[in-house]
Amino acid sequence: MSERTAATVQSVDRALTILQLLQENPEGHGVTEIAHRLDVAKSTVHRLLASLKQKGYVRQDDMLEKYRLGLKLLELGETVSENMDIRTTANPYLVKLAQETGETIHLGIREEAEVIYVDKVERYAPIRMYSSIGKRAPLYCTGIGKALLAFVSSEVQDDLMSILTLKEYTPHTITDKAELKNHLEHIRKHGYSIDNEEHEEGIRCTAAPIWNHRGEAIAAISVAGSTSRMTEEKVKTCTGSLLHTALEISRRLGY
Description:
Elements: H1 3-24, H2 31-38, H3 42-55, E1 58-61, E2 66-69, H4 71-101, E3 104-111, E4 114-121, E5 136-138, H5 143-151, H6 154-163, H7 177-190, E6 193-196, E7 203-211, E8 217-226, H8 232-252
Antiparallel strand pairs: 1-2, 3-4, 3-8, 4-5, 6-7, 7-8
């Protein structure tokens, strides 16, 4: 390990220790006390606290000259809790949907410009497909990804579109941003998306967003199967069950 890398690791470790100290004492700590607990110079503590304060992880009480945990941690904790709640809440509904459709059901969330699959319920005779729990996939060419990309705010969507590189995974992948933009408008209008072999040849799926109590699309679920079974007619049938299930889960989450 290089000296620079070692110094970075040490700084991260000290910053995390500061957060733990502030967690232990809601009343906060002063620079002198933190420096004593970490056995480092006060100048080092000042530098670390300045970085944490700038990012919102700590806040300073000017009157008492103490530091406390910042609201950014509340935001992060809410996100983690929300994602865990989604999987726990959604799973029984995913199992039921898999039984109804006979296909594979996915639950995914967005992280930046990617989808992360957080749950998967196999159909009775599993088929080989890309997805697995914890795996990432592009937003723009997957059913779950498009369902999420379509329902973010226009500002967030524009930001995401600006950083997306539309790689062609199959002959069916949308690789033109203007075409994708129009496609997303169609999804917003109808409330669900279809991945027609856009990420994997031979796999077709239909997906719909899950909403939280603030009316935000925080996850999406999909029904996926081979094109030999997921015909256009079956997609229509599955989409009805999918939308009903997505709404049930959303209502359980306070929507």
